[in-house]
Amino acid sequence: MATRQSVDEYLQRCTEAIEYAREQYKTGSQQEHYNQTEYTKALQGLENAVNDINHLSLSANDQQQDQLYRMRLQLQQLQNEMIIRH
Questions:
Q1: Which terminus of the chain faces fewer neighbouring Cβ atoms within 10 Å, N or C?
Q2: What is the DSSP string of 28-42?
Q3: How far is it, in rounded angstroms, from Cα 65 to Cα 86?
């Protein structure tokens, strides 16, 4: 079973991945193709976070699964926005 601390720490890392991706999304909107490497890195970070959430959910209780599900939705929404913009 996932511990509360491990879920909280992972949710914090996801929040950081979202913040980084939003920065790259904003920069990408302003600079077009000039930050391609960082933009791709941000997208990969979001994908890794989604995959890790899926794995962590398997050992989470109901409340933790709900938290992880909500975070996964945020990650995927930003991922979709970045892909469509790209």
A1: N
A2: HHHHGGGGHHHHHHH
A3: 31
Q: What is the pTM of this model?
A: 0.88
Q: Which of 14, 74, 2, 69 is nearest to 45 (CA)?
A: 14
Asked whether the beta carbons of 10 and 52 are under 8 A apart, the reply is yes
**Alpha-carbon span 15 to 13, nearest angstrom:** 5
Query: Of 17, 13, 65, 19, which Cα lies nearest the Cα of 44?
Result: 17
- Token pair of 18 as six digits: 């979202």
Q: Angle, to 10 degrees, between the axis of helix 36-57 and the axis of helix 4-31?
A: 160
